Fold this sequence. Notes:
This protein has 629 residues and is an alpha+beta fold. The protein has 3 domains: 36-108 and 146-183, no CATH class; 187-277, Immunoglobulin-like (Sandwich), CATH 2.60.40; 306-623, Deoxyribonuclease I, Chain A (4-Layer Sandwich), CATH 3.60.10. It is 29% helix and 26% strand. The strands form 7 sheets. A 7-stranded mixed beta sheet has the order 3-2-1-7-6-4-5. Strands 18, 19, 20, 21, 22, 25 and 28 form a 7-stranded mixed beta sheet that branches.
Amino acid sequence: MLARSLLAVAASSRAVRRLCCSGAMNKSRMAVDSDGRMLVRCVPGESKMTLSFVFHGKRKELLRNQDEPLECALQRITQKAITVLEKENKKLRRKMMKEEKKKNTSQRMESDLVEGAVASTSGTNTPVSSGCDAKVVAGAEDETVKVHLSFAGEAMDPAMINSEAWREGATLEIGSNCYRIECNPPCITSLSLPSVIMLGFPVFPVARFEFVELAHVLYEWFVDADEMKAVEHEERTWEPVGNAEFFTPSVQHVGHRLRLRMTPGDGIRLGESQEKETTAVEASPGRCTFDSRHRFTVEKTALGTLRVISYNTLANTYAKTELARTVLFPYCPPYAMDLGYRQQLLQKELKGYNGDVLCLQEVDTRGFEGLAPFLQRFGFEGKYCEKGNQHEGLGLFYHTSRLRLIDQHDVVYAEALKNDPRHIPLLEHLSTRPQLLSLISDLSTVLQVCVFQSVEDESQKLCVANTHLYWHPQNAAVRLVQVILALHHLEHVTSTTHPSTPVIFCGDFNSTPDTGLYDLITTGTLSSCHDDWRSLEGENEVPAEFGIEVGHMLRMYSACGEPEYTNFVKGFSGCLDYVFASRDALQIAQILPMPSHEEISAHVALPSITHPSDHIALVCDLKFSPRDK
C-alpha cells in the first residue's frame, strides 16, 4: 500500500514538472491536489485541527476542534459542498439565460427584417410569428451530496472524535469525489525570495516548514527564457536551471526573472509545492569590500579554535529614515540603502567568513527573522535580544557543530542597576548625580549573554557576551556605567554560575581606545578621577566626588587590536567595535585584515553600493589555551 502511494506521489510530481517545463505553471496548487487528497493537520496537544481539500476546483479549509464528534465535521463539509454546487448552478443559469436572451434578440431582429421585406413588397402589414416561445432554463438540478468517512472499507462511527477519526489512509467521499486522508503531510507554511536579485549573489529562499526533513526538500529553479514581457500577466517560457538549495545568477540571466518551485518532503511523502518568482536579475555592484577578506576564511577553523565575528549591521529602522538618507549617509544611493539590497550584501559577507560565533548589533526584528533561516541552513542557531520597543537589538549566532547552548543570562542595564543587590554601591553613588541616573534608567540598552559547551570537549565551556552601548559622543559617563554593569554581570556568571569559564565580550561600545571604558576592560581598573566620569551632556553641576573607583577580575584583551577605524562615515572615522577575550584562556590564531582604505573610501564612505553597513566587521580566530588537567 505504501509503495503504491509513493508511486502515485512520484507520478504526480513528474506530471507537475512536465507542466512547468512547458510553461503552464500558474495552477500548481490545483495540479498538486487533483489526485484527490485531503490534507489533515492534527498536532497532539493543540485544540484545533485543519482539514484542507479541493472540491470542484475550489480549495476549502476547515478549522475544527480535535475533540468534537466526527458527525459535526462531516455536516460542515456537506454545507461547504452544497454551497459550491449552488454557486455553480446559479452561474450556469445566468449564462444560459444570457445566451437565450441573445438568441431571442437575434430572432426578433431577423423577424423585423422579414416584416420589412414583405411590407415593401406587398405594401401590407402582415403579422409574422417568431416561431419561438421564451424558454425558462432552470439549469442543472442540485446534486444530492452524500458525505462519509471510512477506513479499510468500514464507515467511521459518527460519534468518534475528530482527532481519532481523521487518520492516515482513511477515505472521504463527497458525492462522486473521493479523497484519501494524509495526516500531517510535509508542509511549507511560508516562502519568500529576496526583493533584490544580483549577478553573482546567491539567491537563498527563506521558508518555514512543518513535518519536514530538510534533507528531503526538493528545489527546482527556472529562468524566464523570453525577453521582458510588455504585459505583466503574459505567459512566459520557463527553462530549468538548477536543483540546489540556492541559485547564483550568471551574466546570461541579467534582465531575466527567476522562479523557484519548492516541494517539502519527510523522506516518505512529498507535500504540496509552492512557487515564488523574483524580480529581474540586476547587474553586480562589482568588487565588494569583503571579497578580499574571504580569501583568509575559505576553510573552517581547526579543532579547539573558534572564528568570532562582531558586526554592527545598521538596523533598517534607522537606515530607512529621512535623516539617514539626507543627513547621515547622503552619499549612498537610495537603492543601496534599501533593506533588500543590503541583505544580499550582508548574507554573502557573513557566509564567506565561515564563522563559528557571530555577535551582531543593530539587528531588526524583521532582519533577524530573515537572517536566522538563512544562517540555519549553514549550521547556525541564533538568539535574539530586542532593545525595548526600538524594534532592533542583538543577534547572537553559533555553529551547532562546534558549540552547544547550555545557559543564557541576558540583562537590561537599567533593570540590573535598579534590582541587583551587587550594584547597590554604584546606585548610591549615582544618586548624587540625578541627571546621569535618570538617563541611564530611561535607556533600554541590553547585554546578551550565552554560555556554551564545546561539542568537541564537553569539559570546555565558553561565555559569549554581546552588547551595543549608548551612542551619544558627549555621554561617556553613561557608557562607563553600562560597561561596569556588564562586567559585574559577567563576573557573576563566570565565577558563581559557571566557575572558571572564559569570556568573549563583543560589541559596538561607541568608545575609542583612548577612553576610560577601554582602559577599564583591558586593565581591570578605573580611577574615580578619570575625565570620562565628567562626560555628560547638559550636566551643569558635577559633584566633587564625581566618579567611583571600579575594577574587575576578568583579565581581558582586545583580540583584534586597535584598528584605525571600525566605523567610517563622512565626517567621522574611529575604532568603536571590539572583540574582548580572556587573556589566560584564549589565544589569537588569526586576525582578519581590515579592508584597505581605498576599498572603504571608493564610494566616499560607508554604507555604499559595495558595503551594507556604516561599520566594518571584526573577525578573528581564537584558540583555547591548554588547560591543566
